[in-house]
Amino acid sequence: MKTYKFTIRGNEYEVELKQFEENLARIEVNGTLYEVEVHREMKTSKTPTLVRSEVPPPSRSDSKIKKTISSGPSAVKAPLPGNVMQIYVKPGDAVKRGDKLLMYEAMKMENLVLAEKDGKIVAVKVHVGDAVLQGDLLIEMD
To answer: Can you give the pTM of this predicted structure?
Structure first.
């Protein structure tokens, strides 16, 4: 581990610390192994230890994910701020999941906005060249 040099009454000793646990140390002095007890004040941590209570497992009814189905048109929103470059759909168009809806520039990159589900375009709320912010409504789908 660590090597130290001690001079006691004019004699030089080379001490290698082999193991140190709590107040017991195993050292080697000039090739001979010794176990020594270290007398020192043990410092206690001022940081409290957090003990959390055990969390009960969820009941079967709590673990199911409930899906909400909206009856009105769904909104396609801008994921990042940017500028609309091209619109691929118009109101009344039927789209499938994964179809291109529009392309816009954000962070100096061209980004495609794709349909997340099958549906029909109800309204296009932006025009080519419009600047949009994150979360702005781009297209309404039914």
So the answer is: 0.50
